[in-house]
Amino acid sequence: MNLTNPTQLKNILGSFGFSFSKSLGQNFLIDENVLNKIIEGSGINSKWGALEIGPGAGTLTRALSQNSKKTVAIEIDKRLMPLLDYTLGEFKNTKVINEDVMAVDLDALISEEFGDMDVAVCANLPYYITTPIIMKVLEDCHRVRSMTVMIQKEVAERMVAKPGGKDYGALSVAVQFYTEPKIVCQADPHCFMPQPKVASTVISLKVLEKPAVDVKNKKLFFEIVKSAFGQRRKTLLNALSKSPYINVEKEIIMGAIENAGLSADIRGERLSLGDFAKVCDYIDERN
Q: What are the Cα distances from residue 145, in Å, to 44, 98, 115, 121, 174?
């Protein structure tokens, strides 16, 4: 069975009466080269578990099953369940769960299904829910060692962006707080069925053993980051002093900026993760 073969995939989908759902962002991968790069980028091996989000017809799932000790796939579309039974039936190390990933306790699921295995998350993510899924995994799952996901090109560029660039923002800080992001490859529209209107990118997020910076109050850290990028044209001082997320006196904020060795008129887009951490710890100690 070769699900990267468009004719074969069309025939299988047709035999199950399946039609693509725009609301679920369904675009199935049909490029073997991209498929192999996802597997390579994940770092998965025969001792690891693989958690896939949105298996579609099972193209990536089959490759994960061949390269992992156990594969678990979470699929929201119940129409795909009989089709996945067919395309994955030969793999005894594979399980498909018909659930909405955003409603699943992923940490508990990983512990139950994978025991003490290291786990890699792989996915061809729908554009409309990319960021919530990635942040849910990074914030809630303690056994995941890597995420290798297909996402919109512009979102991938924001994840790897460095301070000072136009793409650098709250998402850049959040992803780089938990992981070492690296772009693996681009996937043009012709790599999918049906073809999306924009290019996609495979990005590998190697989960760090501990966050990239030490902060005493992680909740405050992300509230400061969110505030700093909420109104990009404002200076950091004005963005934080008028933030709806934090309630801190302007004098304390100014002290935090000076303590971090930053200029009074600096904007949030120029702060590194270390700068944000210094500002956060200073405010946390005095507020």
A: 9, 24, 14, 8, 17
Crossing angle of helices 130-140 and 170-178, rounded to 10°: 30
Given 168, 185, 207, the domain boundary residue is 207
Residue from 113, 181, 110 nearest 141 by CA: 110
pLDDT, one tens digit per residue, over 146-178 is 999 999 999 999 999 999 999 999 999 999 999
Q: Within this chain, do residues 178 and 267 fall inside the same structural domain, yes or no?
A: no
- Taking alpha carbons only, the member of 189, 192, 204 closest to residue 40 is 204
| Distance from C-alpha of 74 to C-alpha of 56, rounded to nearest angstrom | 10
In this prediction the pTM is 0.92
Q: Find residue 7's DSSP bridge partners.
A: none
- Residues spanned by the domain of 58: 6-207
**Same-domain pairing of 181 and 235:** no
Helix (H) or strand (E) holding 123: strand 119-124
